[in-house]
Design brief:
Shape: globular
Distance between the termini: 30 Å
InterPro entries: Methyltransf_25, Methyltransf_Superfamily, SAM-dependent_MTases_sf
CATH topology of one domain: Rossmann fold
GO biological process, one term: methylation
Low-confidence stretches: 1-5, 274-290, 294-299
Structural class: alpha/beta
Protein name: Class I SAM-dependent methyltransferase
Largest sheet: 7 strands, mixed
Oligomer: single chain
Bound molecules: S-adenosylmethionine
CATH architecture of one domain: 3-Layer(aba) Sandwich
CATH class of one domain: Alpha Beta
Strand order of the largest sheet: 3-2-1-4-5-7-6
Number of strands: 7
GO molecular function, one term: methyltransferase activity
Pfam family, one: Methyltransf_25
C-alpha cells in the first residue's frame, strides 16, 4: 500500500497509534477475509463514485476508503481520535434523537460504529447503513453479526441514495461531513430532506467547526482534503437552506458537535419547532408526530442483507 511520507500523521501520530494498537491482530483479521469476494456482495454497478471521493487519501492510505486497508484500520485508529472517548461522542448523537424512529438511515456509515448504536438504542426500528465503500460495509456487517444486530447495509452515495421520498423518520451522519466538499454537503442535506417524513429529524455528528477554525494546524494532520472547507462553513446555515427548522448545534466535548434539524410539518405553526428548541436530550419524547410510512414494505425497498 502506498502512503504519503510527509504528513504529521505519517511522521508522528501513526507511529504512536501503531504503538497503542495490536497490529498483529488486525493483520490476521485482514488476512482472514477475501475482501474482493465479500465486497462484491455489496457493490452496485449503478453507483457513480464522485471524483472528490475516489481521488482522496485517508490517513495516508492511497485510494482512501476504496482500499480494504481503510476498513481494517479505521476502528483501531478512530478509538483514539474522539475525546473523551468514542462511545461518549457517538452517544451524543443518540441522545439528541427526538423522534420515535421506525426507519433510520445512517449515511456514510463506514464500519457501522454509530449504526450499531442506533440499532441498540432503537431495536424496533429498521436500520440501514449506507456507504460508498463496499469494503467498509464488509467490516460493518461483520461487526453487526458479531453483535447479533439485524441491520441492512447498502452501497450508495449519500448525495443521491435512490431511496423513495419520505421513507425515513431519522437520517443520521457521523463523521461524514468533514470529508465532503461543501457542494456535496449541501446535496446530502437536500437528499436527507427529501427522504424524511414531515416531522422527521436529521442529525449530523462531526468535528466542531468553531474549534477547527481556531486550530488550523489540526487540519494538516490527517490528510483530510476537505476539512478546511468544512471548518470554514456553517452547518446550521446549510441545514436552514435545505429547508430544515429548529436547527440547533451543540458542542460535544469541545472538539465535536452535533447538529439537529427537523423537516417541517406542513400546516403547523412554529410551536412544535419551539418545543423542539427547548428539548433536553435525556429521553425520547412524543413532541413530534411523525407521518406514517405507509406504502413502504419491509424490509425496505427490496434490500436484502
Ligand atoms: C470518517 S468515515 C465515518 C464512518 C462512520 N460514520 C463513523 O462514524 O465512524 C466517513 C465515511 O463516509 C463515507 N463516505 C464519504 N463520502 C460519501 C458519500 N458521498 N456517500 C456515502 N458515503 C460516503 C466513507 O466511505 C467513510 O466510510
Amino acid at each position: 500500500m502506498a502512503v504519503r511520507q510527509n504528513t504529521i500523521w505519517e511522521n508522528f501520530l501513526s507511529p504512536m497509534v501503531r504503538f497503542l494498537i495490536d497490529e498483529e491482530k488486525w493483520r490476521r483479521y485482514a488476512a482472514s477475509i477475501d475482501w474482493e469476494k465479500q465486497s462484491d456482495r455489496f457493490r452496485r454497478s449503478d453507483i457513480i463514485v464522485p471524483s472528490y471521493y475516489s481521488n482522496q487519501n485517508f490517513h495516508g492510505i492511497e485510494g482512501g476508503y476504496l482500499n480494504p486497508e481503510a476498513a481494517v484500520s479505521y476502528d483501531p485508529v478512530t478509538q483514539y481520535l474522539l475525546p473523551p472517548n468514542e462511545i461518549v461522542v457517538r452517544q451524543a448523537l443518540i441522545d439528541t434523537v427526538k423522534v420515535h424512529p421506525r426507519r433510520i438511515l445512517d449515511l456514510g456509515c463506514g464500519t457501522g460504529s454509530t449504526t450499531l448504536m442506533l440499532k441498540q438504542a432503537f431495536p424496533q426500528a429498521e436500520v440501514i447503513g449506507l456507504d460508498l465503500s463496499p469494503y467498509m460495509l464488509v467490516r460493518a456487517e461483520d461487526k453487526a453479526e458479531s453483535a447479533g444486530l439485524e441491520i441492512l447495509w447498502r452501497h450508495g452515495n449519500a448525495e443521491k441514495t435512490n431511496f423513495p421520498d419520505v421513507a425515513f423518520d431519522l437520517v443520521t451522519a457521523s463523521l461524514l461531513f468533514h470529508e465532503l466538499p461543501s457542494t456535496a454537503s449541501q446535496a446530502v442535506l437536500q437528499e436527507s430532506f427529501r427522504l424524511l417524513v414531515s416531522g422527521g429529524q436529521v442529525l449530523i455528528l462531526d468535528g466542531n467547526q468553531k474549534t477547527l477554525r481556531q486550530l488550523e494546524w489540526l487540519n494538516d494532520i490527517f490528510e483530510e482534503p476537505y476539512i478546511r472547507e468544512y471548518a470554514a462553513g456553517n452547518l446550521d446555515a446549510i441545514m436552514d437552506a435545505a429547508g430544515f427548522e429548529a436547527v440547533q448545534t451543540q458542542d460535544v466535548w469541545w472538539i465535536n458537535q452535533v447538529t439537529s434539524g427537523i423537516k417541517p410539518i406542513p400546516g403547523t405553526d412554529v410551536t412544535i419547532q419551539k418545543k423542539v428548541r427547548r428539548y433536553t436530550p435525556t429521553s425520547i419524547d412524543s413532541t413530534i408526530d411523525n407521518n406514517d410510512l405507509e406504502g413502504l414494505g419491509s424490509p425496505v425497498f427490496g434490500i436484502t442483507a
